[in-house]
Amino acid sequence: MSAPEGHRGTILVADDNEPNRDLLSALLSAEGYKVVSAADGQQARRAMDSDSIDLALLDVVMPRPSGFELCQAMKSKPETRLIPVVLLTSLNSDDDRIHGIMCGADDFLTKPVNKHELLARVHSLLRLKQFTDDLDNAETVLFSLALGIEAKDPYTEGHCERLSKYSVSLAEKLGLPEHLRVALRRGGLVHDIGKLAVPEHILLKPGPLTPEERKIMEQHTIAGERICAPLRSFRHVLPIIRHHHEKLDGSGYPDGLKGEQIPLTARILQITDIYDALTTDRPYRKALPVKEALAIMREEVKRGWWDGSLLNELEASVIGTAMPVEKQA
Known about the structure:
alpha/beta, Hypothetical protein af1432, disordered C terminus, disordered N terminus, 14 helices
């Protein structure tokens, strides 16, 4: 059985038994895979740090650290947690397998390893890894495009990064689950990606927009949602992109949502977006002092635009103050 084109990769083989290690290396090399060998856990850890590994075959009982420990360490680090891990074991108890699953193992192979089973498992896991890499590449392209939009205007430099930081901080204070914090981090970066569809003479116009130009500009939320919709991992980001210009009184766009019809994540991003816009330099004015920016935002809360409770939390979590904000009626 040969490895299909496009799915070959670099495989770490970590086993303190040299004959086992050599056998696995020979089988995988014959199929066109690049093999990195390690005689113990420490060597395996160094290989992880220095090589681009696509899959790891780890002996459970190797020393310093064991396969279980190395697997758990890999799955706890963002840079290695998506690398498939196959544990090699002569242990057959349910407890050992449960332990491996709890450590994050993607699969198990029982020693002595069957050649055909080994190659089938490797092929399957590398194919899944390729899908993950493609998804990661697509996200990277989106982030680069979004930052490219920001770079066109020197007054918005760093805006996306700050929104990600502020929004995630606010989400943590509110106790939002991890998947929504991730969505806000991504949303901070790509919320305005739909401006790719806005002509530059409108996007960069220094003065007020005409009604026709404003109508075109307001379509960027819909365009942004459409651009990101194919990525399933962005399903929780889409409401942020589409609705971060809605207002609680229904006067926002694109859908005129009111109150809690506006997703909480979109309300979080919009409150941090307004704060950042007020406290950074713009072509038409200098950055406002924090207290003045907050006073303006409080007035807008009274008008029914923003979520006053979120403004309270923003002050406490991001700005480090706890000045009272009038509650929304």
